[in-house]
Amino acid sequence: MEPFQGGLPQRNISKGPSPVCTMPKHLPLDFLKKMTDNFSDERLIGKSAFGNLYKGILADGTMIVVKKLAENSPIARDKTFSNEVQNIMALRHGNIVKLVGFCHEGQKKIVQKEGRYILADIYESLLCYEYLPMGSLHKNLFESNGMDWNTRFKIIKGICQGLLFLHRVGIIHMDLKPQNILLGDDMEPKIAEFGISRLLDPELTRLNTQDVMGT
């Protein structure tokens, strides 16, 4: 697949810092469709509780991960979503995955409801993260040749530091597992899938001790 050649809106990424750092925070849906080949199966790299993960490629080859939340995800549909996403984007720590952009667009669509067809506002909600080439801790533990003790200790320490940071800012992960720990080139661990609970609409979801939906 060819990288998406379209320009990012409003900002020039040809000079200066990484394109990921200079991207506008709110990204148009059409832009994300183009950089993921319209969310093609070839760009699908994983699935999570609330949606699918796709590899997005910028014009210079820089990669990001685009998480397309399912239409039936119990997320807030008003400005609460955008506000909470921007709060999460402000978090910076070496052991948590960076949220670098998002999309929250409503489109008019004809849907069937109670036996009738109506024109409704259907929201597309997407989250964009930094891309970590080494994949998940689960993959490296169980699908590779393993890791030496020093590397394992580094990963354990990094996870603890990331969790401590999240707890200090009031975020409880609720779904920490090897699949949600991603590794960089230097095997530094980064916690993923955190903060999703802040995006949920309390009227659409019910979390309790018997039915935990994850982050």
UniProtKB/TrEMBL annotation:
Keywords carried by this UniProt record: ATP-binding, Kinase, Nucleotide-binding, Serine/threonine-protein kinase, Transferase
Family annotation (InterPro entries): Kinase-like_dom_sf, Prot_kinase_dom, Ser/Thr_kinase_AS
One function term, GO molecular function aspect: protein serine/threonine kinase activity
Signal peptide: none
Alphabetical list of SMART domains matching this protein: S_TKc (SM00220)
Class of this enzyme: transferase
EC annotation from Swiss-Prot or TrEMBL: 2.7.11.1
SUPFAM superfamilies: Protein kinase-like (PK-like)
Lineage: superkingdom: Eukaryota
Domain Protein kinase, residue spans: 39-215
Known catalytic reactions: L-seryl-[protein] + ATP = O-phospho-L-seryl-[protein] + ADP + H(+); L-threonyl-[protein] + ATP = O-phospho-L-threonyl-[protein] + ADP + H(+)
The protein's name: non-specific serine/threonine protein kinase
